[in-house]
Amino acid sequence: MEKVIFHIDVNSAYLSWEAVCRLKQGGTVDLREIPCAVGGDKSKRHGIILAKSLAAKDCGVRTGEPLTEALKKCPSLTVVPAHHSLYRQYSQKFMDILKEYTPDVQQYSIDEAFMDMTGMEKIIGDPIAFAHKLKNRISRELGFTVNVGISSNKYLAKMASDFEKPDKVHTLFPWEIQTKMWPLPVSDLIFVGRSTQEALHKLGIYTIGQLAATDVEILRHHLKKQGETIWEFANGRDSSLVESEPEGNKMYGNSTTVAADITDEDTARMVLLSLSETVASRLREDGQKAQMVSVSIRNTDMKTVSHQKVMPAATDITEEIYEAACHLFEELWDQEPIRLLGIQTGKLSSERGGRQMRLFDNTDYEKMERMDQAVDKIRKKFGKNAIMRASFLDNPKVEKQKNKKN
Fold first, then answer.
1. What is the Cα–Cα distance from 74 to 60, expressed in whole angstroms?
2. Confidence band for 4, pLDDT divided at 50, 70 and 90
3. C-alpha–C-alpha distance, residues 292 and 250, integer Å
4. Is 9 annotated as contributing to ligand binding?
């Protein structure tokens, strides 16, 4: 059966949610209809544009740029502070509607999700017609608009939802790739940042179609693993599943906005190790093991990408989670400066039985578990800084962050 995957993306989420909230409270100005942006404290690192209206975009305001630069381009720009607790409330209402139609909903970020609608035609009718009904219901009941992308896999569905905005439904099925996706510039391909774009241009590759037709060995030579990954995506290939979390099966995650942009792999790995330590210790504290690991990267343009993998066995071992995170990072990173790194784990299990052994796997998992437990005991008794990895010493970019359990 041909899969039917939806990707639903809230249009200018933070700004839309601010606008809806203010109108409900009696406001007379719709922030979406004036030059407006959601930003942070100008005196801190978060003094950047988080979301903008179409009118602000027309003035040249870009997501991720400093507020000072945005105000030079648009002196009349209305800047409102971010209210993340409010955004979580609207995000939950958004997700609740999606889950009414299928249990197979994967929240990809606070303002977007995938839905596996395969085999649902007898209930919803034509998927494209239903997508219009879904986005109209969200607009009618919640007050903000969304884009819906439809395809047979997650990647193409996400590409489709990024076509013309706002309040649109687009399809990008495999048979439409040649006409809808291949003529686009390579920069439109998800996971292709400025550095990757420049590398592709040096190879004479300017469109997604040219990338798809390039010998994959050439791309591997110049871009390593990422070259193969974007070649697969340019050809519309993606085998990842819509990974929904059962009710009550929480996810353990941690992320950090770094003090200075990360531009080298060694520093990124140290940050991932720090994140892995805090996530793994939280899992052990709650008697949980995770089989799914996900890594998120946000660059200086506020573009966020994430990738996940399911491990052979559930684990709470720091080193295993770290190795999985590094593998995902290598596939994701396009050499753009990194502002935020995050790790999230899921597919949780509280079973404490032994793991299924694999052929040629000589790893001493029991020894690794004992080492983690010893570190946990020392930190619990003497404080979290009582024992620290040598690689973390005197490195200002690697800062311990408070765990978040979501």
1. 8
2. very high
3. 12
4. yes
124 forms beta bridges with none
Cβ(291)–Cβ(324) under 8 Å?
no
Closest CA to 7 of 102, 99, 114: 114
Question: And the tokens for 97?
Answer: 């509607």
For every residue of 214-283, DSSP letters joined together read S-HHHHHHHHHHHHHHHHHHHTT----------TT---EEEEEEEEEEE-SHHHHHHHHHHHHHHHHHHH
Residue linked to tokens 């110049």: 222
Please give the sequence-ordered ranges of beta strands (E in DSSP) within 164-233, or none if there are none.
Answer: 169-171
Known catalytic residue at 2: no
Q: How far apart are CA 392 and CA 376, in angstroms?
A: 17
Q: Is the pLDDT of residue 56 over 90?
A: yes
Burial class (CB in 10 A: 0-12, 13-18, 19+), 116: buried
Q: Which residues pair with 292 in a beta bridge?
A: 310, 346
Distance between start and end Cα atoms, the chain: 34
Q: Could you give the percent of the chain with pLDDT greater than 90? A: 51
264 among annotated binding-site residues: no
In the set 112, 243, 277, 336, the catalytic residue is 112
As a residue count, the chain comes to 406
Cα–Cα dist 295/285, whole Å: 22
Q: How far apart are CA 296 and CA 278, in angstroms?
A: 16
On whether the CB atoms of residues 149 and 158 are closer than 8 A, the answer is: yes
Instruction: At 256, list the tokens.
Output: 């950090």
Backbone angles phi, psi at 386, to 5 degrees: -65, -30
Question: Which of 202-206, 300-304, 326-330, 365-369 holds the top average pLDDT?
Answer: 202-206
